[in-house]
Write a structure and sequence with these properties.
Elements (H helix, E strand, L loop, with lengths): L1 H42 L5 H25 L6 H6 L2 H33 L16 H25 L15
Helix pairs in contact: 1-2, 1-5, 2-5, 4-5
């Protein structure tokens, strides 16, 4: 039963990372297109605060949601030279400690972004004709998705400390 739950968790974490990558690619393409239009419009003496604000909002969402894929595939910055020279047993405990720290960060980010969402709900956005809280929604979603993937990283690291193996298709390449 536990093995099935871990495999299901691994698949959902992988799905979240794939969806984040697809969203990020689309958001990046839109940001580049919006910025190109804005640059051309400025050359013609016209500028759109709406387009600039939309570009900034999408870029923020792209940055935050895109981190999910980096987190899942373990593509963030690592001191690989030093890491590989640490004994395997210590390295596994270090992985658990780091995974718990990352998980804690996303717990705080989610809690604070939900508080900001509540705070900005009654405010009107200065450019868009919507509530200010709509620009906080990508932060909340990104924090929740990253929290889910970071939770999987804790489970994977703890499983390795216990001497058991994780499903190969969901283990980041660094740990294979």
């Amino acid at each position: 039963m536990t093995g099935r739950l871990v495999r299901l968790y691994a698949r959902t974490a992988d799905l979240a990372a794939r969806a984040a990558m697809a969203f990020s690619a689309g958001a990046l393409a839109l940001v580049v297109a919006f910025n190109a239009v804005e640059i051309a419009a400025r050359r013609l003496g016209r500028s759109s605060p709406l387009l600039v604000e939309l570009s900034i909002t999408l870029a923020t969402a792209f940055y935050l949601v895109g981190y999910t894929a980096l987190l899942h595939h373990d593509d963030d910055v690592v001191m690989e030279y030093v890491y590989r020279r640490i004994p395997v047993r210590i390295r596994r405990w270090l992985d658990v400690t780091i995974a718990l720290g990352v998980l804690g960060f996303f717990v705080v980010l989610l809690a604070k972004s939900v508080a900001l969402l509540r705070l900005t709900r009654p405010m009107t956005h200065p450019v868009f004709p919507v509530s200010q809280s709509y620009t906080v929604i990508p932060v909340v979603l990104a924090a929740a998705i990253c929290l889910w993937v970071a939770g999987y990283r804790v489970v994977a690291a703890a499983t390795r400390v216990a001497g058991r193996e994780m499903p190969v298709d969901a283990v980041p390449s660094r740990y294979r």
